[in-house]
């Protein structure tokens, strides 16, 4: 499998060159390509890069604070997106947060290079696209755990390198760039806002009941069947957000005997994580007495019927 490694600037270059050797240590059939190492002397760089871009199966864009505004990186990322699906082009960030990445790179699913779980997901995504050549999940876990420390050490070394002057290598952020960052941060708060809205709704209903009771008989009126149903629905929703919080719960639909929840982080490669996820869904089904359907952002789904 051809993996194209894009870079701009000294620190991103060092990162790409290390990944060229590190990735095959984890998954042996990967063939990474980086322009600083893979173009033979006497060859013309641009045609060689164009050939590799058109023939690659996966793209990793090494991004540092000084390279995020590089026109060359944006060109290569754009070229990769034309020949690959968006999910197969991954900006790999070093010494920079996701919210700080703006412009064309912000459209891709980014990975923090120092985050063990995120890097493992990146490696797992590559492995899944190998078909019959893919490593078994347990072998992939062992291989990753064996090689992760060396990547950690190298990233620490690269991060400690002196950064080029901001005015020499980066562009000024425009108002649109700042707006993109605000929108990204707002999306990250979506789940908290959803839970807050539910809490406000419950508080408003209780306050209204108390006010009406004071104007009437001085005691709270008995709950209607509708009120009981609404309370049960809120209880189920609270359980969904509590039990599935680590998976990034989004939209939740609750019926009388089933519920559906959309999640951002759908485990599909780590056997241990998958087992934990299924157990959590089973607990949710038992607590709510509903059949539970979990849907991932990549159209994957998992269903646990109740009673089973």
How would you explain this protein's 3D organization?
The chain has a five-stranded parallel β-sheet, sandwiched between helices. The two termini are 42 Å apart. Helix 1 (10-26) links the parallel strand 1 and strand 2 (31-34). With 308 residues, the protein is α/β, with parallel strands linked by helices. The chain contains eleven helices and nine strands. The chain has helices at residues 10-26, 35-38, 45-55, 71-83, 116-128, 137-159, 166-169, 175-188, 190-215, 225-243, 271-288; strands spanning 2-6, 31-34, 58-63, 89-93, 111-112, 249-254, 258-263, 291-296, 301-304. The model is unreliable at 38-45 and 166-173 (pLDDT under 50).
């Amino acid at each position: 499998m051809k993996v194209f490694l894009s870079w701009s600037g000294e620190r991103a270059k060092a990162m790409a060159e290390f990944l060229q050797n590190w990735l095959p240590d984890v998954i042996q059939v990967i063939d990474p390509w980086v322009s600083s190492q893979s173009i033979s002397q006497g060859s013309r760089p641009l045609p060689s890069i164009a050939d590799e871009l058109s023939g690659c199966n996966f793209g990793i864009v090494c991004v540092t604070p000084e390279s995020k505004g590089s026109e060359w990186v944006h060109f290569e990322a754009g070229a990769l997106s034309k020949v690959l699906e968006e999910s197969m082009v991954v900006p790999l960030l070093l010494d920079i947060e996701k919210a700080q990445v703006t412009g064309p790179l912000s459209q891709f699913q980014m990975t923090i290079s120092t985050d063990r779980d995120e890097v493992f997901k990146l490696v797992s995504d590559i492995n899944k696209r190998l078909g019959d050549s893919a490593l078994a999940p347990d072998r992939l876990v062992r291989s990753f755990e064996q090689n992760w420390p060396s990547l950690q050490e190298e990233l620490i070394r690269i991060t400690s390198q002196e950064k080029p002057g901001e005015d020499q290598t980066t562009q000024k952020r425009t108002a649109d760039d700042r707006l993109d960052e605000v929108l990204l941060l707002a999306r990250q708060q979506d789940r908290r806002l959803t839970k807050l809205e539910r809490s406000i709704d419950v508080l408003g209903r209780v306050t209204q009941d108390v006010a009406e009771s004071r104007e009437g008989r001085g005691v709270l009126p008995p709950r209607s069947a509708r009120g009981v149903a609404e309370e049960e629905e809120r209880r189920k929703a609270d359980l969904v957000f509590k039990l599935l919080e680590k998976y990034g719960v989004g939209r939740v639909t609750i019926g009388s005997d089933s519920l559906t929840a959309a999640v951002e982080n759908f485990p599909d490669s780590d056997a241990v994580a998958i087992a934990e996820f299924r157990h959590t869904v089973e607990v949710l089904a038992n607590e709510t007495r509903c059949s539970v359907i979990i849907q991932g952002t990549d159209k994957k789904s998992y269903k646990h019927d109740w009673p089973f």
